[in-house]
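This part of the workshop introduces the protein records we will be handling. To make this concrete, we reproduce a full record directly below.
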Amino acid sequence: MATIQSYINGLYTVMYNRVADSSGYNYWLGTLGVSATTAATATINDAQVLQVASAFASTQATYFTSQYAALSDSAFITQLYSNLGGNAAIAGSDLVYWQTALAQLGGDRAKLAGEFANAFINYAGTDPAG
């Protein structure tokens, strides 16, 4: 599991293609009820992953919609990969995996972005924002 610190930073990278600003980062720490010190070691659970991802998209609904609403599902997934470092999804395996995940989440792109960030952080073992 990702630390809360890594997850928040990862969501900013995946959803907004930028690092977290301090006020936004502290807002999400408060939402999760943790301090900056605790966030560096505390892990985020699966329920929190989906909750926070949905809240991330709704608090920035205008930006999220303007960036992603017009994209097809495959273009959206490709954009998530691009936000993390410029790599495109592998057309066969990666794209199909995330399209299936999106379908299982009822088409909720915010939740998919949350799952995507969590998977990337856990795979890489690092904080994508630094």
User: Anything to note?
Assistant: The chain has eight helices and no strands. The radius of gyration is 14 Å. Residues 109-124 form the longest helix (16 residues). Residues 125-130 have pLDDT under 50 and may be disordered.
